[in-house]
Amino acid sequence: MGKQLLMGNEAIGLGAIHAGVDVVCGYPGTPSTEILETVAKNNPGDVYVEWSTNEKAALEVGAGAAYAGRRVLVTMKQVGLNVASDPLMSLAYIGVKGGMVIAVADDPGPISSQTEQDTRHFAHFSKLPVFDPSSPEEAYEMIGDAFDYSEKYHTPVLFRPTTRVCHACASIEVKPRRTKDVPEGFVKDSKWVIFPRLSYQAHRNIEQRNPQIGEDFSGYRFNYICGSGKKGVVSGGISYAYTCEALGETPVRLMKISTPYPFPEKLALQFLEGLDEVLVVEELDPVLERELIYLCGKHHLPVTVKGKLTGDIQPAGENTVASVRGALERFLGLETSAMQPIEKPDLPIRPPVLCAGCPHRASFYAVKQAMKSRKAVFSGDIGCYTLGNAAPLGMVDTCLCMGAGVTVAQGLHRAQPDAVNFAFIGDSTFFASGITGVVNAVYNETDIVLIVLDNSTTAMTGHQPHPGTGVTMMGEVSQKISIPAVLEAIGVKSVVTVDPLDLEKAVDAVKTAAELKGVSAVIFKSPCIAVTKPAPLYHVDEEKCIGCKKCIRELGCPAIVYKGNKAYIEPSLCYGCSICSQVCPVGAIGGAQHE
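The chain above was modelled as a monomer; its predicted structure follows.
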């Protein structure tokens, strides 16, 4: 099929197609999102692809298909694995018939996540094999290997690319799709039903199996040793690429570990033989480092292992070529390299902000205006609207994880019932993990105001469809699930839908909801500006503008700046949401298409 320039996630998606994947499920989350989208875009016609309601649902749909012998890929980001951990732990015991790969993208930094958690720990915790690619090229090849190992050992396997692998690009030789075998289908058997007695035996089998997999991994093509010397370096994932670039032609014994669990002990013992010291370069946690320390203790090897635990590698955040080069120079006793990067000025700090014209800005502002004379706490959630925390809005007081805003608000009410407790949640997150929290509030008769920010898409991760959009990832028109109908069915007595761009009505709706007992809901419904662009654009009448900066000071819209002692709206950024014109005290902002 020839070479193609591919992003790492595209390589993983195409690699899965090449490996004969039958079913792909997932929930969008940076940096994993493009994996599933690539499969959907390049679907040969016989692959079922879905954005599931959440990661738990995705893993369980995938499990059913794998029980029937299909090759299954499930995609998510690292915090999504927390959501899917319940079925994951049981599935590790039950096993699968068809190959099942769970692609979990980690986010060192973190660049777009709540945590820097390391999925390699989840592999150890769940006793499942994990693959850790170091480049897009390797990820393309390794995803096929992951399916093969899954079928060989009848177990799900984890596949852990990190952000710099997911979003790097490389020229990759794309292979023809393998010929798929027709699966036997689901065969009824008691092994698919998890009972305590069967789980006990399954646990014993796993403990016997994993050392065999570790032995198998010692001969795996992407685990290897090269070079020589009395000092050694161990690495894996993207840090291996950094290590190779930093070392250049420097002679050192180097071991690459692409399967951190079960650990390839046989290969590691070969590597450690005759060494005095070892430096372990990895992201995020000292997983390989601890394995080597354990191995040296187990076999009484006089080898000093250095890395994160000894302070020789930074304990958090991303590694870089520069940071790895510095660590290697210290470890190997080399002079500071003359090839250090040229000093560059620091980039200006550009904090993320809500887009110009984003309806969430209007929603937050309406709630802020409605509550300006009252004690209120604003519990937020995961999505674009988390940015409502930033000045000048300052409207997100808490943010824990997806769906938690609804339940955190309930706890705050029990602790301080004199405050009005708001819970903000987006439409996609409402379906993913918000509904149970609302049920909890209604059942326990808790006074909260639920604010659903419905912009008709999953905006933060790239505008994927969700149950409220009426379109599936396969492009089919489906039953559009109504958020107001769901809330009413749950038992929410007051459900009001209003356009947040109509500021006066939006403020009134919030004031009314805040006076009610129990759960009241306001749905601010206005499409994301990337989905529907409003018009006309707005401009400032310089003669009327008094330079009070209220539009800038209260809204924080990136399209409005202060220029020549007057407010000025940058026409290339304005989307005509009209909120600034409603805020202006002197009527200096009006809507007119710019020439």
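The CA atoms of residues 502 and 579 lie 8 Å apart.
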